[in-house]
Amino acid sequence: MDTRKLKVIGRGAFSTAFEHHTDKRKVLIKSRDRVKDCMAEGFFPEHRLFPTVTRVAQGDTFSFYEMERYERTTGLKAHLTDRQWRLYKALREAYASPVRTAWSLMDATIQRITTLPAEFKTEKDAILEAIYGLSNYSTDIAFEISPRNVAVKGKKLILLDVFFIRSDLR
């Protein structure tokens, strides 16, 4: 797939996002990210927290994916419901919390997510299911939440790119 004429709208450690060539409501992602692969293969739960990612082409070292285009917002709090803002803050606290002894980075990530308050049981279960899906690819699963890797749709939080496989950074 030739992306030379497409407008780049974002870049990360594993991916480049382009304006979709035919549908402005979607993005085209060129990626070597195993998390995107996991999402496209159906190992992530179908939950409103996560975008739907579809693989549209596969190469030797990267694949192409499509997903809905989410506009980034500034002032996240103003764009979320009160409950969704509490969820975001709880995820930030979990991300920053210290971890007891862990066998793997995945265990540490699970320990952090299990600290979410009972109010967020449904979201916690969905995130844990995503982690277990990612375990098909690695146990070197890290979680990072910040304004740059989330979006908002209908005043609800969307976790765009909160997981990564640390060993893939090398």
Describe the structure.
The chain has helices at 34-40, 76-79, 82-96, 105-113, 121-134, and strands spanning 8-11, 15-19, 26-31, 54-58, 63-68, 141-143, 150-153, 156-159, 163-165. The protein is α+β, with helices and mostly antiparallel strands and 170 residues long. The two termini are 26 Å apart. The strands form three sheets. It has a five-stranded antiparallel beta sheet, covered by helices on one side. The protein has a two-stranded antiparallel sheet with strand order 6-9. The chain has a two-stranded antiparallel ribbon with strand order 7-8. The longest helix is centred in the middle third of the chain and has 15 residues, at 82-96. The chain contains five helices and nine strands; from the N terminus they run βββαββααααββββ. 29% of the residues lie in helices and 24% in strands.
Secondary-structure blueprint of this entry?
Blueprint: E1 8-11, E2 15-19, E3 26-31, H1 34-40, E4 54-58, E5 63-68, H2 76-79, H3 82-96, H4 105-113, H5 121-134, E6 141-143, E7 150-153, E8 156-159, E9 163-165
Antiparallel strand pairs: 1-2, 2-3, 3-5, 4-5, 6-9, 7-8
Helix pairs in contact: 4-5
Short description:
The protein is of the alpha+beta class. It has helices spanning 34-40, 76-79, 82-96, 105-113, 121-134, and strands at 8-11, 15-19, 26-31, 54-58, 63-68, 141-143, 150-153, 156-159, 163-165. Helix 4 runs antiparallel to helix 5.
Query: N-to-C terminal Cα separation, in Å?
Result: 26 Å
Structural class: alpha+beta
What is the average per-residue confidence, as pLDDT, rounded to a whole number?
Answer: 93
The multimeric state of the shown protein is: single chain
Low-confidence stretches: none
**Helicity, as a percent range:** 25-40%
Radius of gyration: 16 Å
Helix count, per DSSP? 5
Please report the total strand number as a whole number. 9
Which sheet architecture does the biggest sheet show?
5 strands, antiparallel
Overall outline? globular
Percentage of residues in strands: 15-25%
- Helices and strands, in order, run as EEEHEEHHHHEEEE
Strand line-up in the sheet with most strands: 1-2-3-5-4
